[in-house]
Amino acid sequence: MAKPKLALYWASSCGGCEIAVLDIQEKILDVANAFDIVFWPVAMDFKYDDVRKMEDKSIDLCLFNGAIRNSENAELAHLLRAKSKALVAFGSCAHEGCIPALANLTTKDAILKWVYKDSPSTVSNNGAVYPQTHTKMPEGEIEIPEMWETVKSLDQVIDVDYYVPGCPPQPFQIWNVIEYILSGKPLPPKGSVLGADEKTCCDECPRERKEKKIKKFFRPYEILSNPNECLLDQGIICMGPATRSGCGALCTKANMPCRGCYGAPPNVVDQGAKMVSALSSVVDSQDPNEIDEILNQIVDPLGTFYRFSMAHSILKRVDKI
Amino acid sequence: MEFEPKIVAFLCNWCTYTGADLAGVSRLKSPANIRVIRTMCSGRVDPTFVMKAFDLGADGVLIGGCHPGDCHYAEGNYKTLRRAHMLKKIMRKYGIDEKRLRLEWISAAEGDKFQEVTTTFTETIRSLGPLDWRKRIGKGDRTEHTVAV
Ligand code: SF4
Ligand code: SF4
Ligand code: FES
Description:
The complex is a heterodimer of chains A (321) and B (149).
Chain A: E1 5-10, H1 16-22, H2 27-34, E2 36-39, H3 48-52, E3 59-65, E4 68-70, H4 71-83, E5 84-90, H5 92-96, H6 108-118, E6 134-137, E7 140-143, E8 147-152, E9 162-164, H7 171-182, H8 201-204, H9 250-253, H10 271-282, H11 288-295, H12 301-305
Parallel strand pairs in A: 1-2, 1-3, 3-5, 5-9
Antiparallel strand pairs in A: 4-8, 6-7
Chain B: E1 7-12, H1 16-25, E2 34-39, H2 47-55, E3 60-65, H3 76-94, E4 101-105, H4 111-128, H5 133-138
Parallel strand pairs in B: 1-2, 1-3, 3-4
The structure holds iron/sulfur cluster (2 copies) and FE2/S2 (inorganic) cluster (FES).
One iron/sulfur cluster binds at residues 201-202, 205, 207, 209, 230-232, 238, 240-241, 249, 252, 257-258 of chain A.
């Protein structure tokens, strides 16, 4: 029997998801044995044209990581959707926008202006030359992808079958997913989140929780935290209550607050809204002025509460400034 | 056509909702711009509701609860107070004028206050103009390649 066909692609991402796949270590050989890898640009030499020539629905499983922030990302998303039976939004960027979608807190113009003109490291660009999608050269016209104003998650561009959360997904969870698919068991319902659990990060966290009463917030470097007590109890913003379980509370075990990379827990629409709600319960004041004083200590609330889920947030992006 | 603000009002069952009723039976005129959603407590108003209201086209959101100390679930309105402050902080970052969210304590006996709050809030929103969030963030979604500097 022919082996099932596997494709892996990266759109707007850092490459960490690819490393996480390799971090399943020697099991990667099992993957290579079990699947016929037909497309994996980061590891093997394939061309987009190879994919274009494939029959529709001929790829059995496509693990797509990366957000959609330009026309090339979108083109490949559409192409791989057409060619794949099961398409997985793999990792936080494809799932809910992740770090690339923090660009939605500003504008495309502001980003380009900073990068190509104003940033201190931009030295050789006195003419402020901006990237153009089409440039005429003696040899012919050059085309590069068009950057989008708003970064999107994969499911905002194409139809997605499954989600594997995490920045990056934890290797043991990746292996769980692959093992499940290889087992031949019936696939879970479309839209399922795979490689994660159904609770919150706090449920996996070993730290001791007491009643939370917060008068002051700290950034992690501003305080020597107690390693056994809940970080939020100590005034460090920890996204644990607003984050899906599945990683094993990796960060809090390493003395860092959860940043929220596994995304919103089940039945939560908006991770930031959930965090607003959680923090409102623990701030210890009934006086409007004091409440403001305490809340003003939270630096960059949007970037903190939506560090990974801006694209999936209800309001999606900031207004054009 | 003149802009008519769309305002979603989440009113606590025990106080502001009854206050709104009182305003009605007392024949106090309040603006038709207010769309009331009754909740069991102002504390039931999840921040998600407010964001969703703005996303779905509300120009303003009013939350009405019992006066401090009077919440039937002890602390719900204090939680709402903190949420409203946090939400305003977030709204500023999104570029939504924080005046588009208003929190008021209105008891079951304060029909006149309900009238005053809904009237002045409608006028505030009228002067701010339409929010039209989806159009605001959607337009120019894929802007020109060149950058105007
Ligand atoms: S808030 Fe953070 S530190 Fe506290 S229990 Fe939850 S995950 Fe652990
Ligand atoms: S603790 Fe939070 S940020 Fe860290 S890996 Fe887990 S979900 Fe991600
Ligand atoms: S019962 Fe009215 S605010 Fe809680």
